[in-house]
Predict the structure.
Amino acid sequence: MSLTLFEGSEAIAEAAIAAGLRFYAGYPMSPATELLEHLARKLPASGGTCINAATEIEGVNMAMGAAAAGFRAATGSCGQGLALMQEAIAESALNETPLVVFNMARNQQDYFQATRGGGWGDYRTIALAPKDLPEAVELTQLAFHLADLYRVPVIVLGDNLLARTQVSVDVGRRDFGPLPPKDWQLDGTSGGSGKSRQIWTWGAGKHNTPGPGPSVHWARIAEKFDRIAETEMRWEEGFVEDAETVVVAFGTGGKFVEHVVHDLRGQGHRIGFFRPVTLWPFPGEALERATANARRVLVFELNAGQMIDDVRLNVRDRRIVRPIGGVSFDSSGLNLGPLMDATVIRQRILDTLEGATL
Amino acid sequence: MELFISGIGGQGVQLAGKVLALAAVAEGRHVMLSGDYGGHMRGGSSVGTVVVGPGPLRALPVLPSAGSAIAMHNQYWENVGGRLRPGSLILAEASIAPALPGMEGHRLVQVPATAIATEMGARMAAGMVLLGAYAAMTGIVAVDSLVAAMKEQIPVYRRQHIEANERAIRAGADALPALGAPFDLDGAPLREAV
């Protein structure tokens, strides 16, 4: 293993290139700008193309075009930018182009955006939320693999701490196993030749070779997402077997909670942690098992309450679920705020254990 | 081991953190480095955090506590002072050390870094003097590794500063043993698992 000290954005750029990224069209917004900058420097040198798109909508559609031609392609911005990309992300799901979308978020307020989306139709997006940079390197490469495996959009959800903290990591290529051939990729053969291919959200096909039509096409895609939901759940948990209290958190917040829970365990508290790695598919059955004997389930997220919906859906009694996070920004509004602090999290957990109100 | 480097923008806090981090990576250690500084180039708060360990790190990007610190200025010291565990090693620029509050229970070592750097005609290299002294006192990295990392990190258009920086790092290391006995970072009380 070869360790190199990288800023988070640079390590993610390196990991994407190691995974075979050939085309990136992103839109710069803090804290996603550095990812675009690093790819602008590195991607052309490895034979790829990087474009600073004029708008987010252009960026995501350019990336979808490159993906339709069979290249590993990605776009990215912060959550505000992804808001504008929602239609194209839905199209990518429904026309089955493997597209990776990076959200270097300003906070944890994009959980709904990542897991529910804002496009039209029966679609889902796999959403991977790394807790730190070594995991982000893994999940970035996994994102391209899953996108190709299922022909779906995959979101990698980070934040400013992930993007800017420097960590020694190994960005070398990971192998996730074989993939089906891209026998669907557009190859430039024009219409009228009898050999052209078509990627179309409605599945209508061509005049002489009709497709299944929208109803059958969309039902098949819905079945595909059901399959993904059953097979691609990922999570991390600790100390849950005898835990009276289980704390649920995602992304960077999950790492902070894990740290605090280790600490409290050392002091004799019967407490455990649970972190969904895939926000969608949400590892609901695993959470149900992890909280089967818990008297309380605490949810730490830096927003007004988003993931807590998924937690309530997956515990035996939703009345034992309580939020211990909240909206928390720094003064610029561009970065995680003072709640993302081990001392604060520890105190909020202890307050709950003692029955005090927050 | 965890280290806070605290000072004001323009003193080279972030450079010092990066040089130590690169030196540790070059020696095969796992490293986390984070910088917290204001939007302005000079005059604002600047804190660097370096964590070094033998294996994958559990350390948080916002470090709740540390066992050592380098104080380059007393202004903004409150950003890190309250997060030091009892018995921490604090290497402080000698001219501001008396102004640091809350030194009780810590091991404070005053390094005349600015005086040493000024004497060699490179006043801006005081941070490198402190870094050299920190490495020598803790043994966290070899002084030669610091010098090599500094050379790697200085941009092309500032190559003229390399020689002075190297002398500053070595002068800081040479300031021991007059400054005191080695400090055992691993033996520091309440050490966090990293």
Notes: The mean pLDDT of chain A is 96. Chain A touches chain B at residues 3-5, 132, 134, 161-162, 164-168, 252, 255-256, 258-259, 262, 340-343 (CB under 8 Å).
